[in-house]
Amino acid sequence: MSRPSSTSGHTQVTPTVPPAVHALASPTPLLIDAQLPGYLVPSVLSLLRDSAAHVVRQKRLAEDALRAEGLLPSTGAGTDVNGNGNGKGKGRAAEDDEAELIEGEMIKRVERIGLMVGGYIAEKLTLARPPLASHLDIIKFICKDLFLYVYSKQIDNLRTNHRGVFVLQSHAFPPLVPLSSYRGSAADMEAAKAHLVFPQALVQGALARLGMPASVTAETSGLPQCTFQIRTVKASNAPTSATNTPAVPSSGTPVPSAGPGLPASASTGLGIAGT
Amino acid sequence: MSAGGKQYKAIGDDNWKRTDKVNAELFTLTYGALVVQLIKDYEDYGQVNKQLDKMGYNIGTRLIEDFLARTGMGRCQTFAETAEVISKVAFKTFLNISPTVTFPPPTAPSNPSLPTPSEFTLIFDENPLAEFAELPRDAREGGLWFSNVLAGVIRGALEMIQMQVEARFVSDVLRGDETTELHVRLVRLLEEEQPENDE
């Protein structure tokens, strides 16, 4: 079959390569027990949560130190008069903010890893084949080859509206299969969310590497089922990760906004009225 | 290889044949990316080592059950047997590698209440975790043990079967050493009780 390749105008010819060289290019893969990734990913999640917590706290400490030295504008109702006068009122809200921040940081990290791993796997699996022509081909590759490679299981159901939206369904998605919570199905969903960040980022990274940037959302309507929604990005960029800026409570006194360079995390301390 | 050794090797090989396998790349990629992220976050190689060990401990406490269920191995009579089982059956079953076991002369004065030998060293001639990894000089000099999760796994798994051990790497080819060696020392035998939850 002759198909113009992207680099040359010639028809594609299967290269005749001595088997020894071919073996070098595709060495026998190292195999490990299939259960191991299932052990690793949850541990990765909790470890990253801890390290995100560490980073957030360090940042906060550093900011407080800088603020104490007057190098950063003090946060309106904050530490000017009485160092801990505001401490109590701020305590509860700051803790929640901190928890949110930590979650956000952790999700960012897991996503980063997922994107990288997804891109690498997509590249590796498409090395020896002709390039995938259409978006539909790319999605089919994801459903079959990528999922088979990563989860030993293909996607069960693919639907599309032929206008850039694809819905992939897996009835028994491997990372979700061993999940269950004694607290009932609502808590199951919560737990599932954390475990879906990685697969979501994996698919997104793979798509990006294959030349189809898209936004991916993974949801479950009931363990262990899982649905991926892929929206190809056209002109407008749909935001993918939930980097919510925490809403500033409106009851607070208007606070002079901090300098433009201040990271979002500092702004959570603003606007929290001490009285 | 002693008769027991041969038998364990056979068990390990058999388990490996029967288990479902998956390409190691996904695992090593994720692990490597995790180590990179931890280094960025903590900026302290000692902390990173501790975190990896902690993760390994958590994994190990669960992995041991899987292992015992799958292999149906009974209780080991001596610590030396434990060492053989770890190297020939456990590592083979999960990672398809067989590190060599050696029993070096004890580093501490031998404790009469403990079985002898009470320490062993695992020598890895291949390490799937470090397959694509290369340490920058900073990490090498900073004391990073890239595969420290393995030490944690051994510690966690053995604690679940009533052995408190200290497991640590003493050398690593990633750091430019000749070999990758993991030293395990039995600290004490635990009573049948709740394991201390220090995580």
UniProtKB/TrEMBL annotation, chain A:
One GO term of the biological process aspect: endoplasmic reticulum to Golgi vesicle-mediated transport
Top-level lineage group: Eukaryota
CDD domains, A to Z: TRAPPC6A_Trs33 (cd14944)
CC terms in the record's Gene Ontology section: cis-Golgi network; trans-Golgi network; TRAPP complex
Region named Disordered: 1-20, 72-96, 239-275
InterPro entries according to UniProt: NO_sig/Golgi_transp_ligand-bd, TRAPP_component, TRAPPC6/Trs33
Compositional bias (Polar residues): 1-15, 239-254
Family according to the record: Belongs to the TRAPP small subunits family. BET3 subfamily.
Protein name: Trafficking protein particle complex subunit 33
UniProt organism field: Saitozyma podzolica
Lineage per the UniProt record: Eukaryota, Fungi, Dikarya, Basidiomycota, Agaricomycotina
Gene name tied to this protein: TRS33
TrEMBL record, chain B:
Entry keyword Iron: no
Pfam families listed in its UniProt record: TRAPP
Classification via InterPro entries: Bet3, NO_sig/Golgi_transp_ligand-bd, TRAPP_component
Domain of life: Eukaryota
Compartments it resides in: Endoplasmic reticulum; Golgi apparatus, cis-Golgi network
GO biological process assignments: Golgi vesicle transport; macroautophagy
Keyword terms: Endoplasmic reticulum, ER-Golgi transport, Golgi apparatus, Transport
A single Gene Ontology CC term: endoplasmic reticulum
Family affiliation: Belongs to the TRAPP small subunits family. BET3 subfamily.
Protein name, as recorded: Trafficking protein particle complex subunit BET3
Species the sequence originates in: Saitozyma podzolica
Lineage: Eukaryota, Fungi, Dikarya, Basidiomycota, Agaricomycotina
